[in-house]
C-alpha cells in the first residue's frame, strides 16, 4: 500500500525497487542500487558502495524513509569481483 504524498522514493533508483512494506515504505535492493550507479553513473564498485553508504542508506528522512535490503551474496564476493 503506497500512501499518496507520504511514500518516499530514492531518486534515480526505480530499477532497484523490489517491493514495498505494508506501512507504505518502498523497499530497495542495495546490490541493485550499486549496479545502477556502476552502469548509469560510471562509478567503480567501491565508489558506488561508498556513495550509497554515506548519502543514501544511512539517511533518515522521516517516518516513510525507504527500506534498503542488504542482498549482497557476501561481502567477500564483492571484494573478489572488484579485484578480478
Radius of gyration: 14 Å
Beta-strand portion reads 5-15%
Measured between the Cα atoms of the first and last residue, the distance is 42 Å
The largest pleated sheet is described as:
3 strands, mixed
Average pLDDT, rounded to a whole number, is: 88
Shape designation: elongated
Output the structural class: alpha+beta
Describe what this molecule looks like in 3D.
By secondary structure, the protein is α+β, with helices and mostly antiparallel strands. The protein has one domain (14-83). 39% of the residues lie in helices and 13% in strands. It is built from three helices and three strands; from the N terminus they run ββααβα. It has helices at 30-40, 45-57, 75-83, and strands at 17-20, 26-29, 67-69. A three-stranded mixed beta sheet has the order 1-2-3. β1 and β2 form a beta hairpin. α1 packs across α2. The N and C termini lie far apart (42 Å). 17% of the residues are buried. The mean pLDDT is 88.
Write the layout of secondary structure elements.
Blueprint: E1 17-20, E2 26-29, H1 30-40, H2 45-57, E3 67-69, H3 75-83
Parallel strand pairs: 2-3
Antiparallel strand pairs: 1-2
Keywords for this entry:
single chain; 3-stranded mixed beta sheet; elongated
Give a quick summary of the entry.
The chain has about 80 residues and is an alpha+beta fold.
Amino acid at each position: 500500500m503506497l500512501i499518496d504524498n507520504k511514500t518516499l522514493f530514492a531518486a534515480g533508483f526505480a530499477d532497484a525497487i523490489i517491493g514495498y512494506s505494508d506501512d507504505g515504505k518502498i523497499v530497495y535492493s542495495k546490490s541493485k542500487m550499486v549496479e545502477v550507479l556502476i552502469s548509469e553513473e560510471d562509478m567503480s564498485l567501491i565508489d558506488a558502495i561508498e556513495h550509497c553508504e554515506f548519502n543514501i542508506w544511512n539517511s533518515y528522512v522521516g517516518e516513510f524513509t525507504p527500506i534498503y535490503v542488504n542482498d549482497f551474496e557476501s561481502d567477500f564476493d564483492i571484494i573478489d569481483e572488484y579485484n578480478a
